[in-house]
Design brief:
Largest sheet: 2 strands, antiparallel
Shape: rod-shaped
Mean pLDDT: 83
Helix content: over 70%
Number of strands: 2
Number of helices: 3
Distance between the termini: 44 Å
Low-confidence stretches: none
Length: 204
């Protein structure tokens, strides 16, 4: 039998202490939510800025590719692009923001090496390759930022649900139980006081 909610002074004191701890926990959850929300806003701004930057770079890259295509021909440009080495130097690690793990990429940048000769190429080919290397770096950063935004949003939702459950369900229920136990204890004290008065009169 659960005796936690029996109307005793001991239970009354225990429940009051428990309620105090629960309220402190709810306040901490709200602080955590606010901190994560501020972090989220920062990352959202970073995502927007980087998206715009990559869009502009892609437009520049298109122009460079078109010019290079005109300069050396589509077949030569295709051969050069097919010889580009696949990037295998991306290492993903997790960092922690207030208990929430977010990804961080370590990308070992290599000096761009020519996989083609100078014959039948122009400086536009070099510029196009350099530009798309920049775009690659930006896309890696963007993927990390977008993943971070996703994880922060999910963490905020979880914290919000827990905070709401404590604020709207657990705390009000405990307050109600404590109030009922307090009222019952007061009633018992009044009855005991009245009984003692009666006993005292009889003795006198």
């Amino acid at each position: 039998m659960d005796t936690t909610y029996l109307p005793t002074k001991n239970n009354y004191i225990k429940l009051q202490k428990s309620l105090k701890i629960t309220k402190q926990g709810q306040e901490l959850l709200e602080r955590k939510r606010l901190i994560l929300t501020k972090e989220l806003e920062k990352y959202v701004h970073k995502v927007e800025a980087l998206q715009n930057k990559i869009f502009d770079e892609m437009e520049e890259g298109k122009v460079l590719i078109q010019t290079a295509n005109i300069d050396i021909g589509i077949d030569n440009l295709t051969n050069i692009s097919n010889g580009v080495k696949e990037d295998e130097y991306i290492d993903i690690k997790d960092l922690t923001i207030f208990g929430t793990e977010i990804p961080s990429a370590v990308h070992k940048k290599e000096i761009v090496k020519r996989n083609y000769g100078f014959y039948n190429t122009t400086n536009m080919v070099d510029e196009a390759i350099l530009k798309f290397n920049e775009i690659q770096e930006g896309l890696i950063d963007l993927a990390i930022l977008e993943n971070t935004v996703f994880r922060l949003k999910r963490a905020i939702e979880k914290v919000q649900k827990r905070s709401n459950a404590l604020e709207n369900i657990v705390i009000p229920e405990n307050e109600k139980i404590i109030k009922n136990i307090g009222e019952e204890l007061e009633e018992r004290e009044r009855e005991e006081f009245a009984r003692l008065k009666v006993v005292k009169k009889r003795i006198m």
